[in-house]
C-alpha cells in the first residue's frame, strides 16, 4: 500500500502538499540506478560537469521567488530568510561548478632516478545524503554540488517536514541536463533511509546533517561496509562578550546569530557569556532589540521570527525556559507563546533570560529555538572554561577589540568555526563543520569537495629506464 506523507505549514497547520513515500524496493532500485549512472558520470569530463552545474544554478536563480515561497510554507521561516537561503544554496552550486575544474593531482619529486610518483583524485562513488528541515535548500546543495562536481552520483533523502524544496531543486537539476539517475531524491522515513543507505554495498559515502545521536548511529552502521562519512551534527555555541567589546555591535550580531531561522540553526549562539562589568547593560540592550522582532507567519513580509517546526521542538524549548526560570533566571523579553495544538502551530516569542547559571538545562542542551540565556564571567579563562564545557564543538563567537584578548580566545576555544566580532560566519567558500561530537569532516570551501574524492598514488618504475 502506498504511504502518503502530508507536508504541513508550521505557521498555520494547513496541508501544503502530499508526498508518496517510496517503498524499500523502489529505494533499492534508485540506489542501483545511481550506482550504474556513476560508471558514466565519473567519465563525464570536468568542464562538462561544471557547465551542467552552472545551468542548474541559473535555473534555481530564475525560480528563486517560487522556491522561497515553497520553503516558507513548509519550513515556516520568513520569506526574506527563504530568499536568502536560495541565494546561499546557489552560492554552493556556483562555487563547486568552478571547483570541478580544479581537482588537481600532483607529481611528487622522486627518491629514485627510475621512478615517477603520481597522485590523482577520483570520485568516491555513489553518495547518499540525509538532509535536515532547517535549511532544506542550502544543506542539499552544500552536499550535492561538490559531490556532482567531483564526479559522484547522489541520492538525497530530505526531511519529511520539508521535502518540497528539495524535490523542486532536483527537478531543476534535471531540467538543466544533469541526468536523472545522477541526482535522485527518495521519500521515506529517516530510519529506513539510514538502514538502506548504510547497509548498501553500492553506496560509498554517507553525508548527514542533523542531530548528534542520529549521526552516531549512522557512523556505527556505516562501519560494516567501511563507508566514508561526513557528519554535520549538533552545536551549543557560546558567544563571549569581553569587557572592551563594542556593545552595540555585540548586541546587533547576537540578534543575527541567535534569531536566524527562529533560533533553529546548528550555529545559533546558545549561551551568551558576558563580562560581569557590562552584563547588565548588554542584557538590557539585547532585550530591547529582541522585543522589536515581529513574530508571525513567514509569508507576511514584515515577519522576522516564524514558528518553530513542530510540537516536539516547542516542548523541548519550553522545558528549558521553565527549568531556567525555576532555577532563578529572569525573563527580560519574550517568555510567551502563541500555540494551537489542534491546528498544529507553535510560535515562541523571542526570549532573553538573564542570570543563567550552570545548573540549568539550557546551558548544557542544544536549544534550537529563539531563546538567549545570558551568564557572566570575571576572567577570560573562566569564559573559556564555560564555553568549552560541552561535548559540542561546532561554532563559537566572541566580541573584543583587543587583539591579545581575541588571539587568546581564538586559540583556546575548541570549535571548528569561530566568529570574532562576527555573527554571520557561513559562506560557500569557507569550511563548515565541528570538532568533538559536532561532527566529522567539513563542508564548503576546498575541504568540501575533498570529502567526495579518493586519492590514488601510482609509482611508475621501469618505464623511464627501458
Ligand atoms: C545549519 O544550521 O546546519 C547550517 C547553518 C549554516 O549553514 O549557516
TrEMBL record:
**InterPro entries in UniProt:** Ald_DH/histidinol_DH (IPR016161), Ald_DH_C (IPR016163), Ald_DH_CS_CYS (IPR016160), Ald_DH_N (IPR016162), Aldehyde_DH_dom (IPR015590), Aldehyde_DH_NAD(P) (IPR012394), Aldehyde_DH_Superfamily (IPR050740), Succ_semiAld_DH (IPR010102)
Where would I find the Aldehyde dehydrogenase domain in this sequence? Answer: 5-458
PROSITE patterns, sorted: ALDEHYDE_DEHYDR_CYS (PS00070)
Q: Which UniProt keywords apply?
A: Oxidoreductase
Which biological process terms from the Gene Ontology are attached to this UniProt entry? aldehyde metabolic process; gamma-aminobutyric acid catabolic process
Family the entry assigns:
Belongs to the aldehyde dehydrogenase family.
Its name, as the record gives it, is Aldehyde dehydrogenase
Recorded source organism is: Candidatus Pseudogracilibacillus intestinigallinarum
